[in-house]
Specification:
The complex is a heterodimer of chains A (about 80) and B (about 500). Chain A has helices at about 5-20, 40-55, 65-70, 70-80. With about 80 residues, chain A is mostly helical. Chain A has a single domain, classed as ACP-like (Non-ribosomal Peptide Synthetase Peptidyl Carrier Protein, Chain A), CATH 1.10.1200. In chain A, helix 1 crosses helix 4. Chain B is an alpha/beta fold and about 500 residues long. In chain B, about 30% of the residues lie in helices and about 25% in strands. Classes of the chains: A mainly alpha (about 80), B alpha/beta (about 500).
Chain lengths: ~80, ~500
């Protein structure tokens, strides 16, 4: 699986499902959780999406800013779980 | 010795007689016995006293949830001071607002919160430090206060004038609730109670003091832990929690995202909820995993703590939403219509007013707002106007209908739209802002009127708000308008805006 493809997929998920039309410019390193773009419930929704899409499973402590705060971080984390 | 009055730390003092070696507080890293916590509280008490603390002085606690913060609350009670819990989810600017408003003479901080205050230009004079907290002193504050009741703490909630509002709670008010709840939910020293709510939320009064009164164990979960449903699902099972008191949002999130099927919750007995409506659909989802628990809907604003309760039984499923139930033994209710006339007919809607020992003392330093909040009947009995529209059904259960004012409940948090609007309009080029809540989407909409066409990227407004508001108050969606729709009388047409959401 290609890192860049994963990044694009995650970015479009965040824009379409979470941000829902609020014109927010998201770069691959834009903070998502610490900036308030993604709240705690949306974070859990995203985890559910990632688990289904990439056939991975999060350990409870992995649902954390350190792994999920930007498109870059999420994609790297997803790849490390494969 | 004179028969002394009863203060909150006496719950712990009494428990120590027989259960001193039982675990009071369990965190991810450590366990602390009643004796250990009490000894630490005594140490803090002597630090406060040697620094000249007086009765009714305020101790602000701006920290992530930890054991030492609870010990300072106990110490506060020992000194007959008043503690002011400020959750670490508040940005430092809002914490400063609350600290200043409370004119606190001592400030308790964990390292992260102290650094945040420092960065905001609020330097602190530290008089004591340990692994978890710093105790800081404010030398400039020296106002002796005489109050008619023994005050235990002040809980700041969102205020309709745009700044946080302090709800002043007496020891007596907290105690009547604690004593009732301990009995009603049969808490004993073998119970393991989870602490989910932040300390500035009145749900924590149950967690800290019902546990202490009965010598039970408190599972102290931090703000970071509680928002991770996967982690909470695991911890509540591993820690063998017997009693949980949380918001419906907390439970719904657990049920939908926690993977509850993976764990064993056979120790769990009491599932208590408050703060907002538990929608039946979400409740049924939880029931799939936890079919045999005792469920109760507890109702009451911060100003009264819990004043009605409803034990969920088979009949509950007949309602679109659970009733808020019947009055707690210490509370008396009436319903009034718009002209303050008593409503005595079944199913007729009116504002709920509450009297009894659990009532708050006043709004901190706001006599005007305090006066408006109370109503006196012909026997001069004092009632609090909840602002909640409620009816009484034929079975004698109160049923929540709606809010009388603009107050919003989102994910169990109480939010006054004006507090958000005040921040948004302070952003350059914005002339007006109106916040509305969509229940269907669970979104806070913020309509923004801008004199000039501002940058279409509303992200910068959101980032700006984040400096002043906790994340749960941030609007989910901004809508830019050239001008607000107006009614014929020139006011903002809220109805027209509602149609846009």
């Amino acid at each position: 699986m290609n890192l860049e493809t994963i990044k694009e997929e995650i970015k479009s998920y965040v824009l379409e499902t979470i941000v829902q039309g609020d014109t927010v410019a998201i770069d691959n390193d834009t903070p998502l959780i610490s900036s308030g773009i993604i709240d705690s419930i949306s974070t859990l929704k995203m985890v559910e999406f990632l688990e289904g899409k990439y056939q991975i499973e999060f350990e409870p402590h992995e649902v954390d800013r350190e792994n999920l705060d930007s498109v870059d971080l999420i994609a790297a984390f997803v790849l490390s779980k494969k | 010795m004179i028969a002394s009055k009863k203060l909150l730390h006496h719950f712990i003092e009494n428990t120590i007689q027989e259960n001193g070696e039982c675990v009071y507080i369990k965190t991810a890293a450590n366990s602390y016995t009643y004796t250990e916590v009490f000894d630490l509280a005594k140490k803090y008490q002597s630090i406060f006293e040697s620094n000249g603390i007086k009765k009714n002085d305020r101790i602000a606690i701006y920290s992530s949830k930890n054991m030492s913060s609870i010990a300072t609350m106990i110490a506060s009670s020992m000194c007959e001071a008043v503690y002011v819990p400020i959750s670490s989810i508040n940005p430092p600017s809002r914490a400063i607002q609350i600290i200043n408003e409370a004119t606190a003479s001592f400030i308790i901080c964990d390292k992260a919160c102290r650094d945040a205050l420092n960065e905001c230009g609020r330097g602190l004079q530290i008089i004591y430090s340990d692994d978890e907290i710093d105790i800081c002193i404010e030398k400039s504050v020296d106002i002796a206060l005489n109050l008619a009741e023994d005050i235990a703490f002040i809980l700041f909630t969102s205020g309709s004038t745009g700044t946080p509002k302090g709800v002043v709670i007496s020891h007596r008010a907290a105690e009547v609730f604690v004593e009732w709840a301990a009995e009603e939910f049969s808490i004993t020293n073998s119970d393991i109670v989870s602490s989910i709510a932040p300390f500035n939320f009145d749900l924590s009064v149950f967690d800290i003091y019902v546990t202490a009164m009965r010598g039970a164990t408190l599972l102290l979960y931090t703000e970071n832990e509680t928002k991770n449903a996967l982690l909470m699902a695991l911890k509540l099972a591993e820690d063998k929690a017997t009693t949980i008191y949380g918001t419906p949002t907390f439970y719904s999130t657990l049920a939908y995202y926690g993977k509850l099927h993976k764990f064993d919750y056979s120790c769990l007995r009491n599932v208590l909820f408050a703060g907002e409506i538990f929608h039946l659909e979400n409740f049924m989802k939880l029931l799939e995993y936890w079919p045999d628990k005792k469920y109760a809907n507890l109702y009451g604003p911060t100003e009264t703590n819990v004043c009605t309760y409803f034990k969920v039984d088979a009949t509950a499923m007949n309602f679109p939403n659970f009733p808020i139930g019947v009055a707690c033994p210490y509370a008396t209710m009436i319903l009034l219509d718009n002209n303050d006339k008593l409503i005595d007919q079944v199913d007729q809607e009116g504002e709920l007013l509450v009297a009894g020992d659990s009532l708050f003392f006043n709004y901190w330093k706001d006599t005007e707002k305090t006066a408006l909040a109370f109503y006196f009947d012909s026997f001069n009995r004092k009632y609090y106007r909840t602002g909640d529209i409620v009816s009484l059904n034929k079975d004698g259960q109160y049923v929540y209908v709606a809010r009388k004012d603009r107050m919003i409940k989102k994910n169990g948090y109480r939010i006054e739209p004006s507090e958000i609007e005040k921040i948004v309009v302070s952003y350059p080029m914005i002339s007006n802002a109106v916040v509305l809540f969509s229940k269907e989407k669970n979104f806070l909409f913020c309509f923004v009127e801008s004199i000039e066409c501002i940058d279409k990227d509303v992200f910068s407004i959101k980032l700006f708000c984040q400096k002043y508001l906790p994340l749960y108050m941030l609007p989910d969606k901004f809508v830019l308008l050239n001008s607000m729709p107006k009614t014929s009388s020139g006011k903002v047409d809220l109805q027209a805006l509602k149609e846009l959401i």
